[in-house]
C-alpha cells in the first residue's frame, strides 16, 4: 500500500512539476512516468493473487 501511495504521489505531484524544467527533461520525465505506471499496474495484479 505504501509503495502504491508513493507512486501516486510522484505521478500527481513530482512529475508534473519536473516537466516544467524544459523540453529536454520532459522526455525523460515522461519515460519515468510510464515506468511508474507499469510498476503500479504490476503491483495491483500481484496484490490480487498474493496477500501482502
From TrEMBL:
Keywords: Cytokine, Disulfide bond, Secreted, Signal
Transmembrane region(s): none
Principal location: secreted
This protein's GO CC annotations: extracellular space
Keyword Isomerase in annotation: no
InterPro entries: 4_helix_cytokine-like_core (IPR009079), IL-10/19/20/24/26 (IPR020443)
Any one GO MF annotation of this record: cytokine activity
Subcellular location: Secreted
Annotated function: Immune regulatory cytokine.
Family listed: Belongs to the IL-10 family.
Protein's UniProt name: Interleukin family protein
High-level lineage: Eukaryota, Metazoa, Chordata, Craniata, Vertebrata
Amino acid at each position: 500500500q505504501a509503495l502504491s501511495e508513493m507512486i501516486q504521489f510522484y505521478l500527481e505531484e513530482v512529475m508534473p512539476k519536473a516537466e516544467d524544467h524544459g523540453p529536454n527533461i520532459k522526455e525523460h520525465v515522461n519515460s519515468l512516468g510510464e515506468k511508474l505506471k507499469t510498476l503500479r499496474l504490476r503491483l495491483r495484479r500481484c496484490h490480487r493473487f498474493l496477500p501482502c
